[in-house]
Amino acid sequence: MNDSTLLNDSTLLKDSTWTARPPRDVVVAAGPDALSFLQSLVSADLDGLGDGQSVRSLLLTPQGKLEADFHLARVGDAAWLVGEGGHGSQLVAALERFKIRVKVEVDLRPDLAVLAVRAPEPPARARADDVVVVPVPWPDGDRFDVVGPTAALDEAEAELAGAGVTAIDADVYEALRVEAGIPRMGFELDEKTIPQEAFLDRDAVSFSKGCFLGQELVCRIDTRGHVNKYLRRLTNVAGGVPRGAEVVVGDKVVGAVTSAAGGMGLGYVRREIEPPADVMLRWDGGEATATVTSLPLIG
């Protein structure tokens, strides 16, 4: 599928309903101490989180760099952590390092998967006990992830298809993600990321809770510091652009592309480049023009 087709599809789908199966890993923390254990580590405040409710959160390193980005849903006395596919084992290993005299088991659950839905409300099948619905804010309106066994997700997807909801493929979903400015682990986010660089502090960090892992750096930047680069959206991209392409202003490299799809891109750009700004994208064998813009507001 070429970029123009992706752009057309994503633009048409922007205000419509759809389902997708993005790659996701689900990590479950269970046991009497599960929630208090996580409360001491993750960036979101879990106090007052009710059964069936969810929140976006981060796990940081002690140095304040990103370990994992996920949505955390409370399911009884357990927590389901839903994050980017292929990174669940890393999250399990990171949490296991801090299990000292606590009654909690942390497991990657390959039997659980995710159906991403953009529709006015979850399907009836999503109200069953074996399924959890996790709201996921996007700039053009909330959507949600239905998390549960694959068979349950198949039933939910069939129910939505019967109501006229379109199932989209991975390429179109990726174009929608880039257009929406949603950062992704392994692309925009990695072990070098400081939360403020990707604006993760907007909805994934509590500055009023007690201590959490990596709090010192994040709070210091919030109160009296700054980061040297920001995640930006690249629009009006002419032609196909590979990941890693340089963002150039004049003769100076000021950033790099992290994702590109559907005539748009995401990338980190030095903070002195104020959006909107016209830039050149360069890579081995090609170049293209683009405009650096701010990420859409979410929520």
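(ticket continues) Second input and output from the same batch:
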Amino acid sequence: MMGRGARLAAVGAISLVASAHVGSPDTYFEGTAGPYPVRVIVRSPGVVPGLAQIAVRLLAPQEVRRVLVLPVYWDPRTAAPPPPDVAERVPGDSTLYSAALWLMTSGSYGVQVTVEGPVGSGTALVPVMAVATRRLALDKPLGGALLALAAFLFIGAVTLVGAAVKESGLEPGVTPDRRRTLRSHVAMGVATVVLALALLGGRRWWNGVDAAYRTGLFQPLHATATLRMNGGARVLRLAIDDTSWTNPKRQWTPLIPDHGHLVHLFLVRDSTLAGFAHLHPLPLDSITF
């Protein structure tokens, strides 16, 4: 009885630990950077562009000179990678280093973690997928303040146009005549219309950018798995049939290998949970494996 209870407790503990990673947008990596064993955690900002938090822990207590981190986009033609950032040692923990990196474009990245120490340098490549999973809302107090500032600038611009037409050509102390006053009123009306049209155009542009960002928010892709017999062997076919992936105008970048494979497929026997398999389907084309 005690043995069964211990096993149940162990399963429960493992489930609690594993639940921290299942469905998480963050990336966890444990491996080696040359002669240095490391654990790397990349915490996704949830928005793109966004600032990702990088934590690098040295798993062996040894002195190193510095730790460098560098995000490299999948397509080097898009932009040359910037110089690497130096990760700062976390106060009170000699084995933990942290840095913040900007992920400017949605898509596949490789975060290069380089450790330099007395026994040489080593680099680990951590695959990271930068996707927007949320849309940040504008705080009401900030929105109210920006609206008040915009109204102040709008009224100020119209007033400046009227004053320029009415008084800019007069000598000091001369009172504007009726004609100048009328011209200033007309100029203020024209300025009001022009500025209003500019604001409407800006609003339309902003709504277009916001709509494009909403369509790029990540949602799980629909895929279909079928099992068939081929020459006496069972073959599993996995197809990404989601329209957001098959659309030629999709915003997603091509797949890149993660630990040497494009797809990691986990199969669990549904009825008894007695079977488990970790497979790496081979690609037939861009949507079928």
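Agent notes: The chain has three domains: 21-130, 140-215, 223-279. The chain is about 30% helix and 30% strand. Closing as not reproducible unless the customer responds.
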